[in-house]
Design a protein that fits this description.
This protein has about 150 residues and is an alpha+beta fold. About 40% of the residues lie in helices and about 20% in strands. The two termini are about 20 Å apart.
Length: about 150
């Protein structure tokens, strides 16, 4: 069942995307409402799955994870067993920040965050020892120009 959201819901969501640590009073003031209706709307959107868990965004470079690789994977295997094994391997690796199955020439793209090139090589060697892939291309991000988790509401 799809949940309908209105302009006030969008304003609340935009504020939560900016800073989920804001108090209900602060959000209510910014969106032009009062605390109780804002709380009720947030609760309903959580129950509907529109709002997921609240997490902290960490600074990868400040924690020593200075290398970000985009890994393009082509496979010649597309059966369910291979796919299950591949997905299990990805889930087990915390270095994989994102993984997407693609349409086109490349089958998968991974966003991998590691401390350095040597750490990427260890990740790569472990992955290919577990799962057979046809071709792997790693692209090192030289500079992160934009990164956001905010949806364009």
């Amino acid at each position: 069942m799809a949940v309908r959201i209105d302009d006030l819901d969008r304003k609340i969501l935009a504020e939560l995307q900016k800073n989920a640590d804001q108090s209900l009073d602060e959000i209510a003031q910014i969106v032009g409402s009062s605390k109780t209706p804002v709380w009720n709307r947030i609760r309903k959107m959580r129950e509907a799955g529109i709002i997921g868990p609240t997490t902290a965004v960490l600074d990868a470079e400040a924690l020593g994870f200075e290398a970000c690789f985009f890994v393009l994977i082509r496979t010649s295997e597309h059966d369910a067993d291979w796919q299950q094994k591949f997905l299990k391997a990805l889930q087990a690796r915390p270095e994989v920040m994102e993984a997407h199955r693609l349409a086109g020439d490349i089958d998968y793209i991974l966003k991998v965050r590691v401390k350095n090139a040597r750490a990427y090589d260890a990740f790569y060697q472990a992955l290919i020892s577990e799962v057979r892939v046809h071709n792997v291309t790693a692209l090192l991000s030289m500079e992160e120009i934009k990164s956001t988790t905010a949806l364009p509401l």
